[in-house]
Amino acid sequence: MYFSFYNILPAVWVCLAVAVAATLYLITFYRLYIRIRPTVKPGADEVPDEELPPVSVIIYARDNAADLRRMLPEVLGQEYPEGKMEVIVVNDGGVEDVTDVVNYLGASHPNLRITFVPDDAHNLSRKKLAISLGVKAARNRVIVITAAECRPATRRWLRQMAAPFAPSGGSHSVVIGWAKVAGLKSAALRFDQVSRAVTWLSAAIHHKPYRGTGFNIAYTSDLFFEAKGFSRSLNLNYGDDDLFINQISNGDNTAVVLSPEATVSVHYQRPSHAYRDLRLQHVFTGRRLPKGSRIIMGSGQAAAWLWLAATVAGCVFSLPNWYPSCIFAALLPLLWVPLTLGWCRSARTLGVRIAPVLVWWQLLWRWTTDLRCMLACNRSHRKNFTWYVKKR
After folding, report:
1. For the residues of 292-305, what is the DSSP string, one character each?
2. Taking Cα atoms as reference points, which of 289, 142, 303, 301 lies closest to residue 203?
3. In whole angstroms, what is the distance from residue 179 CA to residue 191 CA?
4. pLDDT at 1
5. In the chain, which end has fewer C-beta atoms inside a 10 angstrom radius, N or C?
């Protein structure tokens, strides 16, 4: 073993150039793209009460009266001007317990109402029908969509989601919020949740929105009716938070609300199982959405693998000369320290805990998760359509 700068093979120089180029791409353009920050800081000046618009909060409930019992008081207790908020629970499934919860709280909250999805509704998406019924029943122009299994982070959630609709907030027509699936124990699933969220949130922050989350999103009823609701995706069970948002949103009419006070957490009895189902739904509908942001995220994985291949090949070709290996070793912290910090800061913004020491591994092997999702989605392709009836 020896150190020499003069006996380096041309192949080693090529590998070094490739590794440097991949490193520069990852720590500049890619790192800036994955870096998301709160758009609203806690305690910042907000829209005054007189400018906040009247809001209708639509809560989708399906056989989960216990979740609704915990969630409704948090929504009804939001810090919002009196007389400017109504809450509409859409009961999908006809469970009497859901109605009992609404009737009990409705005795002390006249702004709480309930509507139902007909039991005989077939060959259509029941959630899309529920949202459509809620929008038609709403008395206010601004519609905020969430679900019974959700929990607002604070009592200022609704205020921050509604602020962009006010004149001083930009008079937007669509507001994209963030909702995390709580209780994910797997480090891989938590990183997957962050990386997928960063993909579409970064696109929205860069004025190219194409989807949101159905647990924390808002738009105007005017826009809903102008788009004829979900008419373009009536044959699909899903798409209310991505295909529809892609249809009605653009860089001018859409605002992103990322704030610790405006976050919503989604609570399932089986979080990992529910998250995988949600991921498969979005993988299927994602085929009909713009791919620009996902290409950028995929390029980061490709650049990371290119860096790894160039580093390994350069070290092997340079042996027994250790000088090139020292150069490659110097690139290691230069690349992964800022990249890890970038992912950790984005995860902190989203309120999700990830393991810093595993970021490099999860970034390199995330493509295997995407591949498994694509294969699983292909196997269950028919289940995404409203005409599919599961055989007993």
Report:
1. HHHHHHHHHHHHHH
2. 289
3. 15
4. 65
5. C
* 241, 337 contact by CB (below 8 A): no
Q: What residues have CB less than 8 Å from 222, skipping those under 6 apart?
A: 141, 173
Q: Phi/psi of residue 256, each to 5°? A: -110, 130
pLDDT, residue 391, reads 46
CA-to-CA separations, 139 to 58, 111, 122, 142, 154, in angstroms, rounded:
11, 11, 27, 9, 25
Q: Is 181 in contact with 144 (CB distance < 8 Å)?
A: no
Give the 3-state secondary structure of residue 392.
coil
Nearby residues of 194 by Cβ (< 8 Å), 6 or more positions away: 343, 346, 347, 350, 352, 354
Q: Tell how far CA 188 is from the center of its chain.
A: 16
What is the rounded CA–CA span in Å between residue 320 and residue 315? 9
> pTM for the whole thing?
0.92
Residue 298: which residues within 8 A CB-CB, separation 6 or more?
367
* CA distances to 76, 110, 139, 145, 346 from 81, in Å: 12, 15, 16, 19, 32
Q: What share of the chain is helix, strand, coil (3-state, %, to 5)?
A: 55, 10, 35
Q: What are the per-10-residue average pLDDT scores of the chain (392 residues)?
A: 74 93 96 90 72 96 92 96 95 84 93 88 83 96 97 95 92 96 95 96 95 97 96 90 96 94 95 95 93 93 96 91 89 95 96 95 91 87 75 44
Q: Reduce the DSSP state of residue 218 to 3 states and report it.
A: strand
Supply the pLDDT for residue 390.
55
One-letter amino acid of 148: A
